[in-house]
Amino acid sequence: MSTPSLLELIKEDFCLPKNNDPAFRSGFELIFNYPGIWAIVNYRIANAMYKKGFKKIARFISGISQFFTNTDIHPACTIGRRVFIDHAFGVVIGETSVLGDDILIYQGVTLGGVSLSHGKRHPTICSNVTIGAGAKILGNITVGENSKIGANSVVITDVPSSSTAVGVPARIIKRKESKDHLAHNDLPDISKEMFGYLLKRVAILEHALTEKACIDINTKDHELEEIYKNFIDAMSTTQKN
């Protein structure tokens, strides 16, 4: 397959809202309502200039684009095809970042570095990845294909393919691949799962005390048992909803 030209890439970028945003109504909206598209288009022009050695001009284009789109994309980074930045505001993509194809990025995402070295210091995002709003992916790490990064997560280690990363710092959870690339809400609740584990552990310890040490916990601490029961009821209600 031949490498697409700059105009072909830009044309492809302008087609993305129709396929990725259910709120899209007409081509007129592209002018005023999709700063992410303009940020990518401006990046492609700046990147072409950067590769030809016109680095100051490229940085100037990036600066103007940042002013109008509130999106900071370094012209030296590598961005593949059909990368869609939804809402875009606050997105930062560092100099040595590498992005594959068909990536969906929400507002407030940072692909940043954690060192002052001049080598590869920003993330590599493989194809078909979804990055939730406010997520921070830091350092020379790799997010594998078909993975999801939960909103506001801080990722500092590699994420395997077809996995989900959530939390601060992010924990890697192996999940079945979703058929819906946009289903970034299909994420596990780490806090609820941890609370469930702790409650089960406490129940085991209470049972051991009752059976082996002959301590009657129920009669000694009715208030604690009531709190325990209310919490279990609340967890069950949340899970059903």
What does this structure look like?
- The protein contains 8 helices and 15 strands.
- The longest helix has 23 residues, at 190-212.
- The strands form 3 sheets. The chain has a 6-stranded mixed β-sheet. The protein has a 5-stranded parallel β-sheet with strand order 1-4-7-10-13.
- Helix 1 runs antiparallel to helix 4 and helix 4 (35-51) packs antiparallel against helix 5.
- The protein is of the alpha/beta class and 241 residues long.
- The relative contact order is 0.07.
- The chain folds into 2 domains: 6-174, UDP N-Acetylglucosamine Acyltransferase, domain 1; 190-240.
- Helices cover 40% and strands 15% of the residues.
- The protein has helices at 6-14, 16-20, 29-32, 35-51, 55-69, 190-212, 217-220, 222-240; strands spanning 72-73, 78-79, 84-85, 92-93, 98-99, 104-105, 110-112, 124-125, 130-131, 136-138, 142-143, 148-149, 154-155, 163-166, 171-174.
